[in-house]
Amino acid sequence: MNSATLYAQLPNGLTVHLKEIHTAPLISHWIWYRVGSRDEQPGLTGLSHWVEHMQFKGTPLFPPTVLDKAISREGGTWNAFTYLDWTAYFETLPADKIDLALRLEADRMVNSEFKSEDVESERTVILSEREGSENEPLFRLGEAVQTAAFKVHPYRHEIVGEKQDLQSIRRDDLYGHYRRYYVPNNAVVTAAGDFDAQEMLARITELYGSIPANPLPEQSIPAEPPAAAETRLEVSGPGETAYIHIACKAPAASDRDFFSFTVLDSLLTGPAGLNMFGGGGVSNKTSRLYRALVERELAAGLSGGLQATLDPFLYDTTITVRNGQSPEQILSVYHDELHRLQDNPAPADEIQRAIKQARALFAYGSENITNQAFWLGYAEMFDRYAWFTGYIDHLASVTPQDVQRVAQTYLADSRLVTGVYVPDGSPEVE
Amino acid sequence: MSALPLASLRSLPGPENIQRVVLENGITLLTRSNFESPSVVLSGYLPAGSVYDPLEKLGLAHFTALALMRGTQRYNFQQMFDTLESSGASLGFGASVHNTSFGARALAEDLPMLTELLSEALRCPVFPPEQVERLRGQILTGLAIRNQDTIDRCEMAFEETIFPNHPYGLPSDGHPETIRNITRDDLAEFHQRTFGPRGCTIVIVGAVEPDQAVECVRQALGDWRNPAQPPASLLPPVQPLPGTIRREIALPGKVQTDLIMGCLGPKRSSPDYLAASLGNNILGQFGLMGRIGDVVREREGLAYYASAGLNAWIEAGSWDITAGVNPNNLQRTIDLVLQEVRRFITEPVTTEELRDSQSNYIGRLPLSLESNAGVAHALLNLERFQLGLEYYQRYPELVMAVTPEQILETARRYLTPDQFAVISAGPE
Predict the structure, then answer these.
(1) Which of A63, A92, A114, B109 could be disulfide-bonded to A28 (CB atoms 3.0-4.6 Å)?
(2) In angstroms, rounded to a whole number, what is the distance separating the alpha carbons of residues B200 and A137?
């Protein structure tokens, strides 16, 4: 994944990042906007995600059914994602058909219609998306933990938005958000695959060159005050199974501590990659928490997650309580394991192992070009592409003392937010 | 019309680039090299599925599959996973009605380690009692979660309804009471009786020469024998429902209702399969979930997801439409789906719709075969459904041969809305 890329910026501020890969006659093309739930105000949460939905409702040039049919007809795949810091759209197509995607994305940077009737039909679709998530205990618990973890930073809101906001947001709120943030100086176009990079750059310049830059809104993201004490909360709901979700503030991706934290996560809950496409994972049965909780028959399973974000977000550990076991006992063991990491440097061979695991996950992710085009833009959303190309080397430089220090700093008891899902045990009826 | 150029056709998996070997003990091995990434995928199956489960011990095959890596003659649980995880490799087992299946991946240099562990798990599990009890607790927790999942509950009730008194109508992972009935000795006996090389298929794709892959498997599994393996189990025939069956499952406290409605569909080896599959694509897949998505999501805004699916298995299949909706919109969604299904079995699809779906099927083939896992899945299907090594190279021609009339005729025979099971699960 380390071959050279072409990096350019057009006069209107559009960043272009391209990588030739000639192994299959395919191209994956992405456009990334630096806008996500981080850019939303209370009362208007969910705007970025809703705008993403509206981008599939068509432009005069590409009416809605024309868009998806044209791409599907070529055997392509396309989708979009809204995250805390960014919104991204991609199309992966046979190489000789990619111009369709290039034209489509350039067109909908400017010309999406946001018809009132489409806004209304999408309102219920998004409410349905949210309600589907609300059926899941882990979503409800995760939302409560996330809100409790941030007092003022917009990361406190779920990306999909608050229900009451989804009910009250108006067409002009959405269109205004679109016009403010969907501008070339706020976007990164990436492509990986079977093309000539200079020719691709020329075509992108031709399509986007005439779109004017626009000043971006002033950012006024409040700094999150440090937590003074551990926060505990409970969520109750249907079911027989209890869950625990523990979160602490994690370093921003651009912080060198992020790599030490990645190793810490691997030790504690097992290796996890950041690939969005392909790769699959490695199991976590030899991780410290699995041994301490699942092997001792307190938990049925667990996972950990560290996200690469612009501002410090959360490191999450989610534990499924084994039926009949007590969340309190699990939390006590969890804290013992944290103290073990805080009190003693981890053995060097355990760290070496985490690095080999990361290397394998990295190799799995290089099997498909969609994932490679993803990284060309994703890394730019929180740092630079060099973050990605240097990933393994950065991990390899992590020392046992680094891991101990981040455990002491970030996983101090006072920084934890602990949520427990308490099932009401209600049986179903038919 | 997109038709793949000849050079692209030859690059698809076919007799020139798949090595297929049958070992003396009956194991079939398919390999295909790909040196673009230094990794390798191994997957496969053997005929030890829940079809052999006694009813009161439903979930036995599944429990056995999960227990294979809990300790073998040479590795205890931690040693086994330490070997795998230290290398960034993975290996896992599961069971379905017909088969116990396995999937693994590793850096190519670790392929001999993978085949060695696969052999240990398949041939020499010892089912340590303590590990069996630990696993039982994990399975029971999983079943309690399944019991509260609206989609899982819908799917289970749907299969139970359209496949009554048939293994396809039973959940392979069992029920809490049947899992409690299973003893450690049941697992050992099930393993001893049903696991063996006959009917076992293994696929290896990635940065390894075919001969080297064959040698790895031969060394690890070439001397495996089990004369006790049972003959293939004969499944009872399936029958369409006599009329519509409506079931509502109430899960208090839930917010959204999930819906499945449908009936029997063709089995994978049926000559009807491809026409049904292309028809299904038009009905509820193409673009943003086909005609169903267009009506239920795009026009009416009733659901985040609403699509049609064709599930074609070895002996039978199902054809269903699924959606997740607000409980207030449930009946409206059911009515709209029925309306679309009736139109689908009354009028032929348009030539343009068919051309779009044919083009979609042919065009997406290279994309689905881009990763090692995608190729491995494709090769497994070749063997599981006896499609022939040249299937993917013939595929464009087979797809193009389907006509609107064939789709209509096929849809009329299978998609019978007056014999639908209509299942929903959600808040009271």
Answers:
(1) A92
(2) 39
